[in-house]
Amino acid sequence: MILVTGATGLVGSHLLISLLQENNDVKALYRNSKHIEKVKNVFTYKKQLDLFDKINWVEGDITDIPSLNVAFEKVTIVYHCAALISFDPKDEDKLRKVNIEGTANVVNCCIDFGVKKLCHVSSIAALGDTKEGEVLITEETDWNPEKLHGDYAISKYGAEMEVWRGFQEGLEVVIVNPGVIFGYGFPEQGSSVIFKSVKKGFPFYTKGKTGIIAVEDVVNCMIQLMKSNINRQQYTLVAENPTLETVLFTIADGLEVRKPSIYANKTLTRIAWRLDWFLSKIIGRKRSFTRATSKSSHSLDIYDNSKIKKELNYTFLDMKNYLISLSEEYK
């Protein structure tokens, strides 16, 4: 029996389809039943609605141990996709609670219930920091606690420490560190917000680089890694490292709308994150642009995917064509 946490999210929903296509028995952890309908929409889009009724839904929360005890019964394989994504400093405690403590609970249940193997979905935000003069980030790049990191990145790094603890206690583990994940479904959250912003005429762009990947590639790599004998390894899952300018312009072309036209240099983004902070104090809205995100929007770091490509002999989807296709679906 396979358990998927975070089953009502982008990665989780697409993962369910792939696992069920292989005739696996799957448990799917959910917190709110209204989110299940979003998963059903993905199954419908993928023309796999006949598989939807085969999901064994289990209500629970990774921060609630009693509910996890029910979910883990007869489970031998776990895909841990559940996480909180927020860049608002006010959510620091929630991020630590869900991402670190929640992962610790999942790891402990894996050990207690004799789970054979765990796949943990982390993030490129949890990878290391380049030294002066360097731009390439690999799985071996050291994390520098003296450098500026957002609360989300810190929480995902802390979650990885819990997974490595699980390995030390006898659990087989693999960690994947995806970049920005694009995929069909969930138009009001995650990377889909980028499409919404561009469609509304978002005017700004920067020339910093970021790692991006299609959700189908994330899911395929996870499943292949879990089927293999690979243990105690982590892999950067990035198809390409385009500039943010390229991503926004490609999406604009796909949506057939005006491209962002104002280059936001470092001075402008410094002003922007301070203004965002000010408005959050005045009107109480959640932060969407912080000092850490301002810095990352100009980063020229490149995430190296050579390890996963070599390990699985894997070829990633072409992201330009993929983003254009997604844009057409978004329209």
UniProtKB/TrEMBL annotation:
Residues 2-228 form the NAD-dependent epimerase/dehydratase domain. InterPro entries: Epimerase_deHydtase (IPR001509), NAD(P)-bd_dom_sf (IPR036291), NAD(P)-dependent_oxidoreduct (IPR051783). Pfam families: Epimerase. It comes from the Bacteria. This is NAD-dependent epimerase/dehydratase family protein. It comes from Flavobacterium ponti.
